[in-house]
Design a protein that fits this description.
The protein has about 150 residues and is α+β, with helices and mostly antiparallel strands. It folds into two domains: about 90 residues, no CATH class; about 45 residues, SH3 type barrels (Roll). It is about 55% helix and about 20% strand. The protein is built from three helices and five strands, in the order αααβββββ. Strand 1 and strand 2 form a beta hairpin. The longest helix has about 40 residues.
Length: about 150
């Protein structure tokens, strides 16, 4: 592999490592972990491909099979990213439907029991309203039947 290409790859991986460490630091304070920074993105793949094409030896260029293989990999990556986006949209719709399903139901949130009077969506997160206060739907521990 060419030295300039190695430098480019090293820079990208170092950037990813720094992003991963800062993401982990934020995750420790937020109690959430975002592992997406550990995965090369489509942009990273294109940068690597362009660096490889730019710095390749003209006397020893990429074979047609290698280039085709890399294009297929990029196409596969793009398809996976599109599927992931579609699944995220589907999950959002399912959460919205779940929240709407609580309307008029008696629910328990911690020690409080009340009837869900309305549902709102704050920054894409569904909230149920009980006695004038909003709660995240994940806090609902029980749905109580009147019968």
């Amino acid at each position: 592999m060419d030295i300039p290409l190695m430098r480019t790859i090293t820079r990208i991986l170092e950037t990813r490592e720094v992003e991963s460490k800062s993401s982990l630091t934020r995750a420790n304070t937020d109690s959430t972990v975002n592992s997406s920074s550990d995965i090369l993105s489509g942009d990273d793949f294109l940068k690597l491909l362009l660096a490889q094409l730019r710095y390749q030896d003209p006397l020893n260029s990429l074979s047609t099979e290698e280039f085709t293989s890399q294009l297929v990999q990029f196409s596969t990556l793009d398809s996976v990213l599109q599927q992931s986006e579609s699944l995220d949209q589907l999950l959002d719709k399912v959460l919205r439907m779940e929240a709407i399903g609580f309307l008029g139901k008696k629910v328990r949130i911690d020690d409080k029991i009340g009837i869900v009077s309305k549902v709102t969506f704050e920054n894409g997160t569904p909230k149920v309203w009980i006695d004038g206060e909003s709660y995240d739907i994940s806090l609902i521990s029980e749905v109580i039947s009147d019968g």
